[in-house]
Amino acid sequence: MLVADRYRLESAIGRGAMGEVWHATDEVLGRPVALKLLLGDDSDAQTAARFRLEGQTAARLSHPHVVGVFDFGSWDGRFYLVMEYVAGHSLAQELAGAGALPPERVAVVAAHTAAGLALAHRQGIVHRDIKPGNLLSDADGTVKLGDFGIARFVDDPAAALTTAGQIVGTSLYLAPERALGRPAGPGSDVYSLGCVLYQLLTGRPPFHADNSTAILYQHIDTDPVPPSTLGVPLTPDFERRLLAMLAKRPEERPTAQETADFFSTGAWRGAPAPVFLSLIHI
What we know:
The chain is of the alpha+beta class. It has 2 domains: 2-84, Phosphorylase Kinase, domain 1, CATH 3.30.200; 88-268, Transferase(Phosphotransferase), domain 1, CATH 1.10.510.10. It is built from 8 helices and 11 strands. The N and C termini lie far apart (70 Å). The model is unreliable at 154-168 and 273-282 (pLDDT under 50).
């Protein structure tokens, strides 16, 4: 099948709430791409607007750790979004195969994801749906942040709720302020990333229960169990930073940029901070 006389659909990758994603070939440029087709037709104005927003939001973010957006349009009564094809797997798949990941790998995931988030936050964009399935890893282990389907700008007064009054996002990774119905901010993404890192290290999210309501209450009222007490071989610096990301109050969490710097410089190992010496010519 050829979409918009340009993109040949090769094989289905997955299906989400709004659309189905295909591995496709851009026959004009001769490169592989990922193409998301909106489910149904474009007559549903709200769904179409949300789909368009995903493309417009991600297109503003050019970064090695954010899935790039190449094109957007309408074809055969359906909207489509053309994105960078990441030949690899999601962190959800990686976690399912391994059960838990070593701290060295989790530090890479943290550094890469936080770097992509830091760019989004500088642009005034909050992702609002950080979870293992939205983090993609290529064959070299580079992690890219994808799926800006429910992202919102920081100053959007409707950022916390849908028009139906429902909190959007995945309850396992939802920040306490969002569980209380308050607007999402950059710190909400950092908290969600902390939940993901915790799950990658321990094999389970920091909070879990039989229903989403109970999980939301745990996000609000319950302190996470330190991973080291579960037998995870973390350095004290790594664990302190992770638990800081899971602080109940947004202002007590590190920023995405601080998180990226911490995990990319090796500070999580307990190594001293790098010292930069200037050469003085006499």
